[in-house]
Description:
The protein has three domains: 3-93 and 207-355 and 394-422, 2-Layer Sandwich (BirA Bifunctional Protein, domain 2), CATH 3.30.930; 95-204, no CATH class; 447-547, Anticodon-binding domain (Rossmann fold), CATH 3.40.50. The chain has 14 helices and 30 strands. It has a seven-stranded mixed sheet. Bound molecules: glycyl-adenosine-5'-phosphate. Glycyl-adenosine-5'-phosphate is lined by residues 227, 229, 259, 261, 270-271, 274, 276, 278, 347-350, 410, 412-414, 416-417.
Amino acid sequence: MRMEELVALCKRRGFLFQSSEIYGGLNGFWDYGPLGVLLKRNVKDAWWNDMIARHNELLQLPGAPSKFSMVGLDCSIIMHPQVWKCSGHYDLFHDFMIDCRESKKRYRFDHIKGRWVTGLKHGENGAPAERVRVFVTTIETENELEALEEAALKFFGLRKKDADKLEWEDDEILGIDSFPNNDFSQVVGPDAKHVGTLTEPREFNLMFKTTVGALGGEEDAAFLRPETAQGIFVNFKNVVDSVQARVPFGVGQIGKSFRNEITPRNFTFRSREFEQMEIEFFCHPSESADWYRYWRDRRFQWYVDMGLAGERLRMREHEQAELAHYSVGTADIEYAFPFLPEGEFGELEGVAHRGDFDLRSHAEGKLVREGDQLVLEKDANGAPKWRGSGKDMSFYDDLRKERFIPHVIEPSSGADRATLAFLCESYKVDKAPTSEEGKEEDRVYLKLHPRIAPIKAAILPLVKKDGMPEVAAEIYGELKKKMPVQYNEKGAVGRRYRRQDEIGTPFCVTVDGQTLQDGTVTLRDRDTLEQTRVKKDELLVEIQQRIGE
Ligand code: GAP
């Protein structure tokens, strides 16, 4: 599947629109259309129901070290600025960016990739041609080799048919972050015509800054949260005290997060405003490694169950050097998004063992790692750099007769990335009959899991007469009370099936001549194309069973 095809379908059928499109759009922001909002809501509902709402704390789930409980939270987006100082985001949540003096564009440092190439460069203003060796670059794309060839042709002023005049040094594509001393004098920026126009990399904090209240001084500065997690940590005591939560327990939250990403791209994959589905799971330190494995495996299986089964989904344990400042173990659940170069995977969810870093930071102040210890970070005068709340973040376990600061396991997932992965995976093309005569044509369909499909069923009278529309409208009205369904009576029924297939509707209900005689309708399955006759009174239960909720 080519990504452009899916992007076009998303716009044409109302899944995703560029934000503020009529004004030219705003990079990194997206709007979910009438079908997209249903799809994403279903993804979030599936997560919420499977992880939180339907969790039974009285049962020991397979693979879980013990029974546990789960509750939810919905915290504010803007929090006390001290939250971000103690969490480390204020000092550490940045990317390195690099500017191009020629194109005036800004790039994420680690995204610029390239190859060494030599060619004959014609001098400007009649100067003689000379052989030049440069490092041409592109930013990560689906087809980097092609993009680099184009960049080299542009730099040497050659046409495509002269591509064999270029002498490439080796096949390996290198990042400019591997250059010693940031010497970019021989580098041609991704959108530049000249060599040596890239600046030194600079740090750029990813948090969106805003002002609280009317006075607007620096002391009123606040931040839009870059993750939902911190709202859970700072409410740890509130949750324990209000619902008598006992460790081990998890707190889940779904909500918007904001990051001023330097290079938002790849559709919704890297946006500046996005939604997260996060769990902070609190457990006894001695059991935390077991809980980490439990959540890692359970979250992976969730994606498989929701339809990402196959070699495009994988789990990857982080190397020690890759771990976030707070983490003693992290695994990423990754998907091979079609916009990534062949063989590359993008993160869908991170499952991190965060130890006691977060609760201790909010109690004591910002912590840093010294060897294998977490210690309070000090300023030049030896005072704590950022003071914590001073509140007691420990938990007293009356069964163990022990007070301890729980360890945290964090499965942190992106609702937009999950939705995008489900869309990518579900996009299928096969051959199927379009008309009643059985003529076969290419059929594009979204093989979405029925739980997340935006429309569960379409109700279609075979023809617009003989009382069929009336019966179909009645069925539509009954089903609509329970699930999102559509009614369509226009055009050949084969074409109407196609329109539903393209938006992933798992079932089509057709009212035909036989319905008027015996009260049965045909129920067509999107994936198998199988049609079965079902009594119209039993339709709701049949569809609900097939959805599998
Ligand atoms: N609390 C931990 C945390 O926020 P993260 O790996 O930075 O960890 C978790 O983010 C998930 O949030 C990612 O796996 C991804 O699904 C989603 N996410 C992060 N940044 C995103 C962005 N700019 N656009 C869309 N989704 C994003």
